[in-house]
Amino acid sequence: MTVLKTSMRNFFAHKGRMALSAIAVLLSVAFVCGTLVFTDTMNTTFDKLFAVTASDVTVSPKAAKSDDTPQNGVPESLPASVLQRARTAEGVKSAEGGVSSMNVTVVNSHNDNMGSSTGAPTIAGNWTSNDLRSMEITSGHAPRGPTEVMVDADTADKHHLKMGDELRTIAQTGDFKARIVGIATFKVTNPGAAVVYFDTATAQRELLGATGRFTQIGITAAAGVSDTQLKQNMAQALGTGTYKLQTAKENADENRKGVGAFMNVIKYAMLGFAGIAFLVGIFLIINTFSMLVAQRTREIGLMRAIGSSRKQVNRSVLVEATLLGVVGSALGVGAGVGIAVGLMKLMGSMGMDLSTRDLTVKWTTPLAGMLLGIVVTVLAAYLPARRAGKVSPMAALRDAGTPADGRAGWVRALIGLVLTGAGGAALYAAASAKKATDGSGMLGLGVVLSLIGFVVIGPLLAGGVVRVISAVLLRAFGPVGRMAERNALRNPRRTGATGAALMIGLALVACLSVVGSSMVASATGELDKSVGADFIVQGKQRIVPQAEKAMEQTPGLAHVTRYKQLDATLTSPDGQKDTDGLTAADPSYAQDLRRATTAGTLTAAYGTDAMSVGSKYAKKHGVHVGDTLSVAFKGGATARLKVAAITDDDVAIDQGARYTSIATMKKYLPAGKIPPNVIMFAKARDGQEKQAYAALKTALKPYPQYEVRDQTDYKQELKDQIGQLLNMVYGLLALAIIVAILGVVNTLALSVVERTREIGLMRAIGLSRRQLRRMIRMESVVIALFGALLGLGLGMGWGATAQKLLALEGLKTLEVPWPTIIGVFIGSAFVGLFAALIPAFRAGRMNVLNAIATE
């Protein structure tokens, strides 16, 4: 009880110091809990949607997959006879054929895309009674003919659609128009998909290109018949293994699996950044408790002198840490729910609707947040607590601070050097790797070891680095600058820990900046060297035939190149099978992409019954020019194609691609199985580049799902995409940097308290308030720049090593973004100034006589 009282008294005696540490715990726990609540809410939203839309049993084609687009762009389908047989099966209450396609684009009369901007699909299909499970018609009526369409209310609201508006649907089989005659509202939350409905005959004809066919059949069980029993009955009626049969649960699980993979990426990425914030927070907590223990050395000595044991002193400090963890974690759990709601609102503004009615806070989330916050806080306070318990009563009563252990310092330095050396060796091994997959593991090991090594060796580095920074920045400020330097050097362990907190976040920023800049520089360099096409046409969906035709009829073009990806199984001369497929393109592609060959010519690969392979494939399987490969085209015949060229795989574009001609593809694939173009290229006639560019944009204006880009556009988009990704990562890393700033503030504030008497004496002998504040600000700037210098140097080393691995994939250019690096370094100085505002202000307000009288 006495230990608890003492801990409570000390805890509340340092409310301001503890508050900053609690904020660090709060932010980290809030980010963890917010991530878990947000992802759990998204899972709940999708689970409800999948559960309510699935029939008791669903019959679909054997080859159909919920997350896959057929090779030819038209959904796999069933004959209507299957529906008739399903209706006669035992235990069936009703059966209805459905038509659905996600390979569509819907535009309004101004050619604006009505689809989601978040990547959610546009779904077109027929309206059935099964849809009444999840939707209700709130305006108008269901479509009754080929010129009528019904849309979901969310899409109508987002795009300001109303009854009577005309929509054009662009499908693989052609374009068709219809007017809105109805609006249907989801009974559950729609995460963002745009949905349009037609009558059954129109959906079959326009989406499937055939009448009397369905993409799936939804079956409702009669009373007393379970889904499992109904599935067995359907297998007997339709034939086991003939079609894909799924119960409602199996259908929902399959859909959930695809969404779950995407959600896990988001979840673990965000938890990773939360972990970084926790790691930074550990330094803050260690520094806080180390300084508080040092300031209470005499008090600890008195406690030991009157009978308190080491264990009790240790326990007292750990109880304070537990109180800090409990308060910070409890507030963090509540803040985490707020963060989750904020993320939901943010996603809503981007087009993904998530309702707060589905807000999911599992009991494990607050428990995980509380445990994580408390355990991390207690572990971080353990070293200061152990150090406090080891102080002898006489030494504590005699000294104002905890005595330093010189031997421990040398041991720490030795361990740090060993870890740093091991990390450097691992990074060197990664940079020397012959395969990116082999080097990635060494890169990860090198990052971890070098980071830990720099953290451990921080106090040793602080002496030299701080002196160099001070010589450049502080000596010009005379005695005040020298005092700031000595203050920063007074406790190298504290300076090292404070700088390390900032170092971690900035190291990751520098690493990612180097990697991102190198990727952009490499890709743009590769474009300049390899791409001969003037224009590139591409979209999120494959290019429909009508857009292809419009492109081919554009005036001012010297040629247009089609580029298709084929599902095929290759068998090499050594008997090994490969299912990576191959690429079919027009012979002009050899001009559009200047691929070097190690043997043969690429032009010959576009001849009849000929193909090319990449150099890595050729080396692995012993393939030479003149060899023949067996190529089994999915949905078509098996061909024997002669290898006419081996392309050099030391590139970033089309690495490993195997080419054949469009003519060869047509010889072995029936017309109905030929896939649409994934991308198309075009070359302008000499001197007509500007006119052809404008004409091509005009020709493809009716198809807003595709973008027309020249090489300049393509480079800029690549730069923008990587820049957006990096900005998002920097935003997440900002949490760790904020925690690091709190650490600098806390360290300075406690340092001011620790030096109260010293400050009073300096004021008494003539140091002005202005000079005092400047001294504290300079000390803060030096510590921040120390952390920034270590972090940026470490991060650039990581980034350069990562680029060596990227070079194995064809991205050979190393580019250091010096403006970003310099900007971050200068920004760190402002971080130091900002962090010193409150401590410097409080130091300047000290009463000189009271400060001198302080013990």
From TrEMBL:
Keyword terms, alphabetized: Cell membrane, Membrane, Transmembrane, Transmembrane helix
Coiled-coil stretches noted in the UniProt entry, renumbered to this chain: none
InterPro entries xrefs: ABC3_permease_C, MacB_PCD, Macrolide_Exporter_MacB
GO cellular component, one term: plasma membrane
Keyword Membrane: yes
TM region(s), chain numbering: 268-294, 317-343, 363-385, 410-431, 443-474, 495-515, 728-753, 780-800, 820-841
Keyword Membrane: yes
Domain ABC3 transporter permease C-terminal: 273-393, 732-847
A Pfam short name: MacB_PCD
Topology in the lipid bilayer: Multi-pass membrane protein
Subcellular location: Cell membrane
Primary location class: membrane
GO MF terms, alphabetically ordered: transmembrane transporter activity
Residue span(s) of domain MacB-like periplasmic core: 19-236, 498-695
PANTHER family named among the record's database cross-references: ABC TRANSPORTER PERMEASE YTRF, MEMBRANE COMPONENT OF TRANSPORTER-RELATED
Family of this protein: Belongs to the ABC-4 integral membrane protein family.
Identification of the protein by name: ABC transporter permease
